[in-house]
Amino acid sequence: MNFMKSKGYLCFILSVVIVSVFSSCTNNQEGNTEKENGSISSSLPVSSTISGNDGSFSEPKDKNDIIIKMNDSNIKPITVSIGDGHVAAITQNRDLYVWGDNLDGQIGNGNRDKLFNQDPTTPVKVLENVASVSLGYFNSAAITMNGDLYSWGSNTYETVGNGSTGDTFTPTKILEDVISVCFGTSHGAAITSDGSLYMWGDNQYGQLGNGKATTSGQATPVKIMDNVASVSLRGAHSAAITKDGSLYMWGDNQYGQIGNGTEKKQTTPLKVLENVSSIDIGEYHSAAITLDGSLYIWGDDFHMDSTTGGRWRVSKRRAPEKILSDVVSVSLGDYHYAAITRNKDLYVWGDNGFGQAAGQSMGYQSKPAKIMSDVISVDLGSFHSSAITADKSLYMWGRNDKGQLGNGNTNNISAPAKILDDVLISLLSTNNNNYNDGSPNFSLAVKENGTLYVWGENSQGQVGNGSIFDKDEPFMALNNVLVN
C-alpha cells in the first residue's frame, strides 16, 4: 500500500489531527485496502503523512499529534480487501462487489456453493451505500455510510457475531456507529466512533481479551477496551493501539508474539510498548514502529525448506527488540519482513526460500538488506513480495508457482521485476501455513484510474475472469473502484 499492510490486518479507524486517514487492518495502502486476518500487512504509520505525488512525508514531533478525532464521519475507508479465496471492492458509487470462494456463504449473495466450480467467478454486487469492507479467511464484513456494521460468512466459531452458530449467507447487521472492522482467523473486532473496542468469535487462546480462554465462543460483540485508535488481528492473537500511542496485545503466545517475555497465552490486553504509531502482526511474529521511527520486532523467525515444506526456528524474541531506525512502514509475510525508511529505501530480510527476500542466497537472510530505492509502498504475501515506487510502478518478486507475480510465467524471481504502471494499491494473499498445503497465492492491484487487476491462483474464481484456472498475467476484474 502506498504509504497509504493489511499483511496481515490492523484497522486504523479515523483521521489523525494533523495527518490523513491511513489503512491498517490489512495493508499499507493509504486508507483503502485490507487483507484477511485483520493483519495490516504493513500500514503507513499514523505518525507519517503523504504530501504530493512523490511519496514525500513528514511526521509529528510528539504523541500529541496522533490524537484521534472521534466523530461519525471518520469511518476508515477500506475499499479493497482480500480473504483466503475471495475478493471485495467498493465502486465509486458505493456499491460493494464480492467474488471467489463461497463455501461458507462469504460472498453474501444468499447462497452457499458447496462445489468449487459453483463459486462466483465474476464480481457480484451484494450491498449498497458502503463505506468500508473487510474480509477474513472465510468471513466478510462491511460498514455502511451511516456506520452500520454488516457481517456474513462462516459462523463455526461465532465469527459472524450475529448471535447464532449457523453460517450466514447474506449481510446481517450486528453493530451500529462503527468506524473500523477486521478479522483474525476466527475472531472479529470493531471500533465505534467513541473509541470503544468490541470483539466476538473464537476465544480458545484468550484472543477476545475478556479474561477467559474457552472453547465457547462469543456470539455477539462484547466491549473490551476504551480509547482505541486502531486494532489488528492475526491467527489467534490481537493488538490495539490506544489514542495515547500505547500498544496492547493479547491472545495466543506460543511463539512469543505477544511480546510479554513469555510463551504463555494472555487473556486480557497487556501494554507492550509506548509511543507506537503502527503495528503489523503475523502468525508467529509482530512488528511495531514508534514515533521516533524505531522498528521493533518480536516472536519467532522460521526458515522454510522450499523442497520438503519443513521449517525450523532461526531465532526467537519474547520481548520487542529494536531492528532498524528511521522506519515509516513495515510489512510481515508469513516468514519474511520488509520496511521502508524515511528516505524511501526498501529493506527486506528473513526467509528467502523462494527469493521473496530478494537476497543472493536462497536461504535465510538474517539482517535487513536494502534492495530498492524510491519506494513508497510495500506488501508481503506468504512467499511473494511487492513494492510500489514513487512513479507508481509495481514491482514483484518471490514465489511464482501459480503465476502470482503476474509476469506471464511460473518461474520464481529473486529480484524485483516491474509488472504494472500507474498503480496506487497492491495486496498479496497470505496463509501462514507451509507452502505444500494448497494455500492461496494470488495478487491484486488497483490503478489510479480505478481499474482493479487480479492474478495468480484461481481455484475459487478469485481472479474474477469467469474461470477457475490460474492466471499468470494481471486480469482487469472490475472498473470504477473507489480510490483515494
User: Which regions have little confidence, pLDDT < 50, spanning 5+ residues?
Assistant: 1-10, 12-24, 26-31, 39-72, 432-437
Average pLDDT for all residues: 85
Just give the CATH class: Mainly Beta
Beta-strand content bin: over 45%
What about the largest sheet?
5 strands, antiparallel
Major sheet: arrangement of strands: 1-17-18-19-20
Helix percent reads: under 10%
The appropriate CATH architecture is 7 Propeller
The name CATH uses for the topology is Methylamine Dehydrogenase, Chain H
Task: Count the E strands.
Answer: 36
What's the Cα radius of gyration? 19 Å
Distance between the termini: 12 Å
Question: Superfamily at the CATH H level?
Answer: Regulator of chromosome condensation 1/beta-lactamase-inhibitor protein II
Shape: globular
Number of distinct helices: 0
Class from secondary-structure proportions: mainly beta
Q: What number of structural domains do the residues give?
A: 1
The quaternary state of the protein chains shown equals: single chain
What can you tell me about this protein's structure?
- The chain is about 0% helix and about 45% strand.
- It has about 475 residues and is mainly β.
- It has one domain (about 10-480): Methylamine Dehydrogenase, Chain H (7 Propeller).
Write the layout of secondary structure elements.
Layout lengths: L9 E3 L20 E3 L13 E3 L4 E3 L21 E3 L3 E5 L5 E5 L23 E4 L2 E6 L3 E6 L4 E5 L14 E8 L2 E6 L3 E6 L4 E7 L10 E12 L2 E7 L2 E6 L4 E5 L14 E8 L2 E6 L3 E6 L4 E10 L6 E14 L2 E6 L3 E6 L4 E6 L12 E9 L2 E6 L3 E6 L4 E5 L14 E8 L2 E6 L13 E6 L4 E5 L14 E8 L6
Parallel strand pairs: 2-5
Antiparallel strand pairs: 1-17, 3-4, 5-6, 6-7, 7-8, 9-10, 10-11, 11-12, 13-14, 14-15, 15-16, 17-18, 18-19, 19-20, 21-22, 22-23, 23-24, 25-26, 26-27, 27-28, 29-30, 30-31, 31-32, 33-34, 34-35, 35-36
